[in-house]
Amino acid sequence: MPSSPSEEQIAGYRENGFVHLPGVITPEEAERYRKAALAARERISDHFDGQAFTQLLQLWQQDETLRGLTLHPDLARIATRLAGIPLRLWHDQLLIKEPHNGAATEFHQDQPYWPHQGVRHALSAWVALVDVPVERGCMTFIPGSQRLHGLRAQDLTDSGDLFSLAPELAWEPRVTVPLRAGDCTFHHSRLAHTATPNFTDDPRVAHVVIYVDEDLTYAPEPPHPVTDPLGLEPGQRLPDAHFPRLS
Questions:
Q1: Is the pLDDT of residue 174 over 90?
Q2: 186 pLDDT exceeds 90?
Q3: What is the pTM of this model?
């Protein structure tokens, strides 16, 4: 795993809002985590099944194998170098696109879905556990769109929703990033991105680790399944037991 991104990669991330890092884990490791991910999907009943994907949250608290990937120190070091500030874990998630699911994950930003305030930086590590060509649901990014602040949460099923909020984005260049098993993209929490449907005969399996500003505080809106059960007060820092610091 490349535990320290180059200065060029860091600069590219900060300019464009994303970076592609090949081979963050080996193909053998990706296969081991893939098997654990599919087993978790069958074992864990608390998950979201949508048209675009199946989502399972907080695997690090429920599966010992996937905990090793979520809490991998090299992933954390890369994220910290890219962000340039101390970070903590927000949550992890499995995102599985079933074969021939027929639905894209439409353009959106991640940050508007999270009950955070005072956020200086947040980013996601999207680790491919299988090969993800365009036909299997890889991601496309709009470079530089992380500079857009204050948008409401977008509808993941509506291809025009983000562009109704920021019409200028419709004319910006887009970068599509196919991944091999073991590759990773890091993307900023406000970077506009989409993922194609899975047209293949095999599931697209990705493990996502989300890192946020260590010092952010809790906001009561929007609701979120990770924080809703915890009884947090507005303005409270996220508790370390549920959202471990990386440093």
A1: yes
A2: yes
A3: 0.96
Residue type, 12: G
First to last CA, the chain: 19
Amino acid at 179: L
CATH code linked to domain 20-230: 2.60.120.620
Rounded-to-integer distance, Cα 14 and Cα 48, Å: 32
All structural domains of the chain with their residue ranges: 20-230
Q: Taken in order 17, 245, 219, 227, is the CA torsion positive or negative? A: positive
Q: Per-residue pLDDT averaged across 233-244, rounded? A: 97
| Upper half-sphere CA count for residue 212 (Cβ side, 13 Å) | 26
> Phi, psi (5° rounding) for residue 193?
-150, 160
Contact between 89 and 246 (Cβ < 8 Å): yes
Using an 8 Å Cβ cutoff, are 144 and 172 in contact? Answer: yes
Mean of the per-residue pLDDT values of the chain: 95
